Amino acid sequence: MPSTEAPTRLKQTITGLALALLPVILFILALLLGRYPIGPLDVGRSLLSPIFPQLGADIPDVARRLVLRVRLPRALAALLIGASYGGTGAAFQAIFKNPLVDSNILGVTSGAGFGAALALLLLQSQWQVQIFAFAFGLLAVGLAFFGSRLYKSSPLLVLTLMGILVGSLFGSLTALLKYMADPLDTLPAITFWLLGSLSAVTWSNLPTLVIITLLGLAFLWLIRWRLNVLSLGDAEARALGINPTRAKLWIIIASTLMTAAAVSVSGVIGWIGLVIPHAGRLLVGPNHKRLMPASILLGAAFLLLIDNIARTLLPGEIPLGVLTGLVGVPVLAFLLRHGRTG
Amino acid sequence: MNKFKTNLALLLLATTLAISACSPVATTPTELIATGAATEEPVTLTEEVVDAPFTIQADPNLMEAVAVLYQAYTPNETPAFIATDADLLVTAASEAEHVPGEILAAFMADAVLIPQSNSSDAADFIEFAISIDGQQALIDAGLLPATITITDQAGNTIEIPQPLMKVISAYGPTTAMVYAVGGEVPLVAASYLGARDAAGAAAMEAIDPRFQELVSDDYFSQSDLNIEEAARLDPDLIITSARTEWLDTASELGIPYVLYDAETPERLTEAILLTGELFGPHATAQAQAWVEYYNWLTQAILDQTETISDADRPQVLFTGTNALRVASRDMYQTSLIEIAGGFSVSAELTGYWNDVNLEQIAAWDPDVIIVPPYGGATVEAITENPDWQILTAVQEGRVYQMPKLVVPWDTPSPDSVLGIIWLAQHLFPELETPDCAEQANFFYNTFYNYAIPSEEINSICAIN
Fold first, then answer.
1. Which of A142, B94, B190, B248 is the most buried (most CB within 10 A)?
2. ipTM higher than the 0.90 cut
3. Nearest Cβ partner of A61 from B349, B357, B390?
4. What angle do CA A243, A245, A246 make, to 5 degrees?
């Protein structure tokens, strides 16, 4: 009936607007807040100083550099990585028809963790760690994927199983490297990397992350309606003219690239890909046409929120793993209580 | 050698006093003579010296013990005691005249052997007197106790057989303490700190040729113990960290263990004295000498720095294996900075290493940054990073790497005295604080019995 449709559409628009504004507000907050006191005006002028050098003239060099070289790349990384986890989580939950998976199910994080640990043990330099993490993340998923081809029936189940197997294989290999690492030396570095943090992000980490994440998000955005079809089942997809195997393969490739790029910069940050799509479903419903953008925006907002807390609350950085649960669970509980039902 | 002696002059006659004042073994020598050796004939001065390889001048109450040692050293021979001008003087440590800083050969509490000539026979006898065999001979004669009772740093009271014949040191810092008190002979397996890299391993092998045979980080460490391997070695004692996880398993084997917890300067001093006590009278004297050395150097630094106002003291940041990881208030590194005369900017943090962000470091804006000699940490990682150029310490080129020979000088170990000396020199280059190269030379000679090559020590101590 038109009388009820109008308010629903209005409500949808408001929800959509709020979801779009949330990451923007948190991104601005990320630039304004920090342990080093910098006034909002100075932050603004620092940001504009690369274009209008005269604006940055009377700002202390420390403040300008902190805004441009520390806060800005870190906020961008939080935005992109959060969006990446949210989007790939929603995509994986659709194609695996399982609400309890995220893009780690095929072992990308375990592979990346092993790659990073190997690089930390042997090579030490930061960009090598990033490359190794990325390459081994892809290798792990590749192994899981081709491993699953060995066994013909029920491909999705076998793929999930292979993902778990490959994940635990790389988990064991990482444990072996930790066992071999010098407790005074490389072990703390490996442990730190496995815990996940954005504190070491600089501009040099960003190019690959920006390119892969933006292309990946665009891809997920474009195929979001197919996710609805794929989540119904292979037979239904074929009936609607979609080759489900090929579509899933492309989604897996894109999501894996995105996740590997994210993990290689930030280390392992769990939870977001698993939980954020559920928050999105509570807010906008299960239709991927709306759920995909909602998951992307919520993921970005959520990681910005917890990273803002992690870097400003105490002199020491609070591990992100501590905050994902402490902040995320109350938010999710609130949504469960007040969110959309059915 | 001369350098080392002159600098020892600084090291106070007080060393002697302190060595003598302490009597870690419960019973005094005179009491022991009265109880243990009362039935034997009294030892007297030799009428006429015939064929004796060397002569001995001994305090009357120590002659008994020297005779016991001599019997054990050369059975069926009698020592040639004379009244003056002997090759060897045996006396109470408190009575002894000697080169300051020299660690005297203590064979019982407050009883030392001092060579008076360059008789090599006398030197060999001294070597024997302070060895495990010498300690055993004195125990057999009832002059030293067969067991000692100590309280370890976890508060446990343990009875320990003497002398120690087979010891496992499962914790890097305790191994360093064993070497520093000269107690390494009974080690059968040990974990080493800072000996995994090639340079550390080479230096450790130069200090102790048995290093490759003893090193067993794969079997024993704070977290892991290979129980079968421990059983095979059949040790009298395991020494390890109080944070060790496998203690219940060691209890199953019935091997006594002594636990260490030395994260503060006070606890470190206590730990080194405890190590001395475990490894016998000579180790006790050497541990006392370390404490005296530590007290001397902290005083020498304080003499130079006490007039500096708080505002003029350097603000120091001690980073960890990663440049964004900093030492908390509870860590030894923070004490090190304070003893050297600086302030730690990260002293508001608690716990262990803390991860921070660059913005926080910029808010602290340290005058000096110290990176550790492990974990792949380098000065260049900070100075060549464009983002770190905002810091005063980086702009002024005051980013330094703490040195190490084997054990990193910033860890709670005997070697940390050199970390304090080095740090004070870097914080106050204009002051006359003790010199790193000179002191490192003395330290490794005295406590590790290792003559460190001078080019090596110069490069370690170079103001970088």
1. B190
2. no
3. B390
4. 70
